[in-house]
Specification:
It comes from Bradyrhizobium niftali. This is FAD-dependent tricarballylate dehydrogenase TcuA. Keywords: FAD, Flavoprotein, Oxidoreductase. Its cofactor is FAD. The chain is an alpha/beta fold. The chain has a six-stranded mixed beta sheet, covered by helices on one side. The longest helix is centred in the C-terminal third of the chain and has 22 residues. The protein starts with a strand and ends with a helix. The protein has two domains: about 300 residues, FAD/NAD(P)-binding domain (3-Layer(bba) Sandwich); about 150 residues, Flavocytochrome C3, Chain A, domain 1 (Alpha-Beta Complex), CATH 3.90.700. The protein is about 30% helix and about 20% strand.
Length: about 475
């Protein structure tokens, strides 16, 4: 690694590999530095399972068209308009080609999933999940001649006047090494695993957060870039955060700790009180709001309450539900006040109106006369045994990042594009995601901007 490279890619997930492959296919020599050990390579990509891409017609794996305009409207909805329209529309347009390009890199799709996920038309699922997708990308990169180093922690970046000059690498064996490259692609993720950094914005509540993905995304590369003149983008308190099982590990619990059962019951806090509309929208557009909602509750804990009539209606989690023959006994097991939970359930049941239940649409099953209302999929909780999942905020990735343009080139604080630095993936996701989330869009950001960053980095190196 003492020889100079055309392109240095820092990171080891989807965005980094797409950038490395793209740059190598454009003729550049490429070095990838992954801070994690080889077994844990790939950051949060290991835990993914699908990607959201625009397409004009049904395919072998997708049940119908998902136009660029519909994708844009979905993004507007979940972000509340907090997105860079030029970059977002560019990403959406480029995503149409990613469906085929990613297959050319060895990734395989599986037939679409139906049921309560409601993603069969919009999202493509990786055969074998995120780890299989990663393994395919790594295999392709290695066959193309991309060099990859693991346990490779970058401790310093040499940047002067918007130009990347080199990096300092630390490995368990061999000590510090100076890396020289003509161009930098930063694809090292967010800072969600850095609890102390999260506490700067969230306070003590961050101690109760669970990190769904890798413990290696500590934001060190992001912090270095921002300290050396790179313009930041995004609200540091915004992130992709979902409600996950409160019994999950602190780090790396992954997708099997997530709960898709909210719309089939009610959610209460430690005082046994409901605090938000559980039926606001179709799950892929609204599941990611629940992490922030739970984070705002006392002690950052909540409980999904449902009955035995719906246990086969949603994808099961790793952890079994907690059950009891009565609401009062369930409350005792959850260490909630029995009288309070009984009152909440009784009031909810009394407010449920007659309707035709259909989890695939915004149906007419709703409540009247209670606050907050449940606007869709409201059914009485009256079929024992009664069940519950404890949930906490599960942080996937943060939105504070580096500003980029359509070439994925990093923008400096003075507004000028950097001379030779690019970014892709979570580290620049805040350009597209000001807040909120739609299922699969993180992989879209990584793949699209990774491919662009690699292509443009190779072009830059040649010049």
């Amino acid at each position: 690694m003492t020889r100079p490279y055309d392109v240095l890619v820092i990171g080891g997930g989807n965005a980094a590999l797409c950038a490395a492959i793209s740059a190598r296919r454009a003729g550049a020599s490429v070095l990838v530095l992954e801070a994690a050990p080889k077994f844990y390579r790939g950051g949060n990509t290991r835990h993914t399972r699908n990607m959201r891409c625009a397409h004009d017609a049904a395919t072998e794996i997708l049940t119908g068209p998902y136009t660029e305009e519909e994708f844009w409207q979905d993004l507007l909805l979940v972000t509340g308009g907090q997105t860079d329209e030029e970059l977002a529309r560019f990403m959406i347009h480029e995503s149409k080609d990613i469906l085929n390009w990613i297959v050319e890199q060895g990734v395989r799709w599986q037939p679409s999933l139906g049921g309560t996920l409601s993603l069969g038309r919009t999202n493509s699922f990786f055969l074998g999940g995120g780890r299989a997708m990663l393994n395919a990308l790594y295999l392709t990169a290695e066959k193309l001649g991309v060099e990859i180093a693991y346990d490779a922690e970058v401790t310093d970046l040499q940047i002067e006047d918007g130009m990347f000059l080199g990096a300092t690498l630390k490995q368990p064996i061999g000590g510090a090494t100076d890396i020289r490259a003509s161009v930098l692609v930063a694809a090292a993720g967010g800072f969600e695993a850095n609890i102390e950094w999260l506490k700067e914005y969230w306070g003590a509540a961050a101690d109760n957060f669970l990190i769904r993905g890798t413990p290696y995304n500590r934001g060190s590369i992001l912090k270095m870039l921002l300290a050396k003149g790179v313009r930041e983008i995004g609200d540091p308190t915004q992130c992709h955060a979902v409600a996950i099982d409160g019994r999950a590990p602190k780090f790396d619990g992954g997708i099997i700790t997530r709960h898709d059962s909210v719309v089939f019951g009610i959610v209460v806090n430690k005082h046994a009180e409901r605090f938000y509309d559980e039926g606001e929208d179709i799950w892929p557009k609204r599941y990611a709001i629940w992490g922030r909602l739970v984070a705002a509750q006392p002690d950052q804990i909540a409980y999904i309450i449902f009955d035995s009539s719906v246990v086969t209606s949603f994808m099961p989690s790793l952890f079994p539900p907690i059950g009891a023959p009565t609401i009062a006994e369930l409350a005792a097991k959850l260490e909630l006040d029995p009288a309070s939970l009984e009152k909440t359930v009784i009031n909810f049941n009394a407010a449920v109106q007659p309707g035709t239940f259909d989890h695939t649409i915004l149906d007419d099953c709703r409540t009247e006369g209670i606050t907050p209302a449940k606007t869709h999929w409201a059914r009485k909780i009256d079929a024992p045994p009664y069940l519950a999942y404890p949930v906490r905020p599960g942080i996937t990735f943060t939105y504070l990042g580096t500003r980029v343009n359509k070439q994925s080139r990093i923008v400096m604080k003075d507004g000028k594009p950097s001379a030779n630095m690019f970014a892709a993936g979570e580290i620049m996701a805040g350009n597209v995601l000001g807040k909120g989330y739609a299922a699969g869009i993180g992989m879209t950001i990584g793949s699209v901007f990774g491919r662009v960053a690699g292509r443009e980095a190779a072009k830059n190196a040649k010049n």
